[in-house]
């Protein structure tokens, strides 16, 4: 779909340099400072920042297009930076006091996250004392804060899934990210010891999904913040899968158009298998993009109308991205399997795209075995299975 997207046009000006840094990004095991500076220069980090702090508040379809384009240049950079961006949407649902702490004096401030509820808390006057080794915090080297998950005792004797926002000065980063894909995402562990978290930096996850959080309604003219946090938080994963697949298709055509078979000298590009693989993968990638664009547009329309989705709609939003990622991974596999042995060499872009493509389907939100169950139960009228994320 063609749409006006000034942010995307600005982003395109820095993509060649980010692509040129892709090998260095993997070597560093984190996004290079140069990439962060380039992305901040074009203002991508302001995509979901509230306008009152100088943000753009772009629509989710516009943002999704930007993430896909960035992923085509470097998936690791897209993975880390898209999360640093989407966290702003989540933080805008916290208290105004927290938002002022974050952005009043530094509107460029970013937050990483580790939202699985692995943290441990102890109640204290005015808040909690937080401890934990919080894993999977992508882009944390470039973050000023982090959003971390924990289970907090409630008055009914149960536990509430909550988020705490903690400044980088209150934790250390364990440089433990050694992975075979998304090597440069810097998805490291935050070591948090006896950090005091005041009440205004804590929110229940359920409240942030139901329009009951402290920040709900702070921006009545916004077309962005009348929406549950989770669809925006998770929006980047499938967009990255799409961007990787679109780049793999381009690369496959480039490589195959000049490729000849080593033992026969036959040209590969006109061979029936190459044509079939190109055609089917093209269809699959186009279908994934159309599916995602439709889903992103629904997100935007609901937020603009200040309308919260029902459970059935959320189930579709939750699982559509996983199916789109599944299609993209299949398309990438089909192309990579026929692109030639030379492209398995570690200095070749194709093998990096192949590895990163599979990582886009490995996140908890894109695990299709989980997502198919979630949607299937909803379509069949069954209650959600609490064992499924």
UniProtKB/TrEMBL annotation:
SUPFAM superfamilies reported for this sequence: Acyl-CoA dehydrogenase C-terminal domain-like (SSF47203), Acyl-CoA dehydrogenase NM domain-like (SSF56645)
Domain Acyl-CoA dehydrogenase C-terminal: 236-367
Oxidoreductase listed as a keyword: yes
Record GO terms (molecular function): monooxygenase activity
Pfam families: Acyl-CoA_dh_2 (PF08028)
Top-rank taxon, per record: Bacteria
Keyword annotations of the record: Monooxygenase, Oxidoreductase
Xref: InterPro entries: Acyl-CoA_dehydrogenase (IPR050741), Acyl-CoA_DH_C (IPR013107), Acyl-CoA_Oxase/DH_mid-dom_sf (IPR046373), AcylCo_DH-like_C (IPR036250), AcylCoA_DH/ox_N_sf (IPR037069), AcylCoA_DH/oxidase_NM_dom_sf (IPR009100)
Protein name in the entry: Flavin-dependent monooxygenase
Source organism (scientific name): Marinomonas arenicola
């Amino acid at each position: 779909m063609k749409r006006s997207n000034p942010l995307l046009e600005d982003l395109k000006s820095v993509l060649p340099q980010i692509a040129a840094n892709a090998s260095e990004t993997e070597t560093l095991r984190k996004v290079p400072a140069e990439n962060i500076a380039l992305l901040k220069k074009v203002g991508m980090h302001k995509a979901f920042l509230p306008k009152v702090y100088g943000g753009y508040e772009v629509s989710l379809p516009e943002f999704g297009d930007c993430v896909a384009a960035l992923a085509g240049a470097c998936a690791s950079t897209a993975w880390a930076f898209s999360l640093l961006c989407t966290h702003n949407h989540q933080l805008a649902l916290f208290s105004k006091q927290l938002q002022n702490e974050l952005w009043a004096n530094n509107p460029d401030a970013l937050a990483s996250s580790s939202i699985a509820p692995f943290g441990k808390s102890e109640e204290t006057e005015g808040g909690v004392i937080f401890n934990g080794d919080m894993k999977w915090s992508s882009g944390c080297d470039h973050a000023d804060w982090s959003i971390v998950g924990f289970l907090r005792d409630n008055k009914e004797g149960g536990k509430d899934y909550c988020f705490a926002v903690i400044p980088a000065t209150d934790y250390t980063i364990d440089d433990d990210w050694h992975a075979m894909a998304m090597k440069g995402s810097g998805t490291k562990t935050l070591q948090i010891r006896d950090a005091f978290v005041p009440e205004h930096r804590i929110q229940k996850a359920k409240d942030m999904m139901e329009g009951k959080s402290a920040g709900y309604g702070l921006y009545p003219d916004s077309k962005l913040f009348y929406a549950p946090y989770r669809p925006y938080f998770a929006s980047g994963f499938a967009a990255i899968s799409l961007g990787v697949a679109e780049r793999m298709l381009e690369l496959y055509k480039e490589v195959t158009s000049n490729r000849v078979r080593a033992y026969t000298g036959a040209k590969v590009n006109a061979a029936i298998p190459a044509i079939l693989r190109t055609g089917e993968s093209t269809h699959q990638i186009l279908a994934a993009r159309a599916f995602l664009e439709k889903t992103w547009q629904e997100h935007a329309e609901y937020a603009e109308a200040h309308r919260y989705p029902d459970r059935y709609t959320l189930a579709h939003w939750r699982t559509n991205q996983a199916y789109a990622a599944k299609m993209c991974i299949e398309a990438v596999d089909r192309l990579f399997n026929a692109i030639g042995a030379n492209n398995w060499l570690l200095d070749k872009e194709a093998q990096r795209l192949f590895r990163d493509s599979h990582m886009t389907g490995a996140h908890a939100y894109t695990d299709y075995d989980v997502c198919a169950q979630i949607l299937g139960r909803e379509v069949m009228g069954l209650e959600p299975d609490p064992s499924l994320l």
